[in-house]
Amino acid sequence: MAGIKSLAKDTAVYGLSSIIGRFLNWCLVPLYTQMFPPGEYGEVIYIYTLVALALIVLTYGMETGFFRFANHEKYKDPMEVYSTALISLSVTSITFIALVAIFLSPISLTFHCANHESYIMMMAIAVALDAFTALPFSYLRYAKRPMRFAGLRLINIGANIALNLFFILICPWLWKQAPGWIAWFYDPDFGIGYIFLANLITSALNLLLLLPELKGFKWKFNPALWREMIGYSAPLLVLGLAGIMNQNIYSILMPLLYPDKANAMTQVGIYGANYKIGIVMVMFIQAFRFAYEPFIFARAKDRGEDKLQSYRDAMKWFVISAMVIFLGVMFYLDILRHFIASTYFSGLKVVPIVMIAELFFGISFNLSLWYKLTDRTAWGMWLSLFGLAMTIGLNVLLVPHYGYMGCAWAAFGCYGSMMAASYILGRIYYPINYNLPKLSFYFISAIALWFFSEIIAIEAKPWINMLVRTPLLLAYIYMALRMEKVQLSFRKR
Known about the structure:
The protein is mainly α. The protein is 81% helix and 0% strand.
């Protein structure tokens, strides 16, 4: 149980930084949309989509590979693993920057940024720095230093927000009042370029703050170890790319599939805005992922039933926590919906579907330990590609008839299928006897409470609904804790 308490504590710390960070970055969206026309803001979204894909390519699964081999019985010195991975990432990051600099013009033309080559160059350097510093952040997780991890993340986020406010709000005001003060560095025509400049500066700041994690050990490259790490991590690259596409491909497919082309982007906007209401579930899963990988590899050294019980307990508490989050969002949706404009309220019906889809994704991540611990990461790649095929197929089938609701059900079907497939394969290669009846009970009882709350809801009296739903939420939490307390007491006997 001590391991689960440690996992819960680390998840809470990682979760705090994730929640605060995502919320603060989300608050920049109104600033961007107020200060820049849609075409320019669209360019920002487009470039950051490319950045997300490039970051996965440039880290090529080395974070998970580090956790695996730092805990591997074959390699006794985790710092040799760390050093080998760092050298690998530094070489690929520097090579990436050099290639972009050499071929900047054709790359900018290919990605529709021919008139803004500086944007591409800045983000190429930023993403290369982020790829390299991803490993020191992973080392902090391995060393069980969540407070430093969270602190550095929050410093980075705070600096990025401060620089955005400085360049986008303060500098234009100073330009009007006293241009001589800032004329030496500020160009009012640079526009959205300052968003990318702020990102570049904060990425460089990250590297400086992480210098202590780059000292105090012997830098050594082990070619044999590196080949094993690449063999283990390469499939995770495909897994990561497929995962990013699973999350974002709707915005590409819907304009192509929706019959009313004039209304297609409206459908994308409604779905995307309402998806953000369920962001709490996404943040919880991300926080859990940060804590879970070091946890499973550390526990892999244990023997016998204790190790398997730790994995079962982690799954159980994950499902309980996720269902509490689900009920919290759904019970208080009358308040949370005001995070988006009223013109988007027609899409609120996607919220429960996408939240359950994200729950399935989180369970799939829980189940992924079987291929990570048995060095069968290729299965992770195939599962992700299977999920991507499901996403594309279901979107093609459903979007022409149901619009953004088709996207929601496609996500539900994709992650549900991946969860089921991972469980079946895990039973073959690394069997863990999860308590399926209890897990199902927690899931079904939460869904039943939500349905009950909808049946008794009074449409014109949202405050009464919340007064009724709060005891239901507390009752669910009490029930779960009571059940686990009885189980723990039984074990002591």
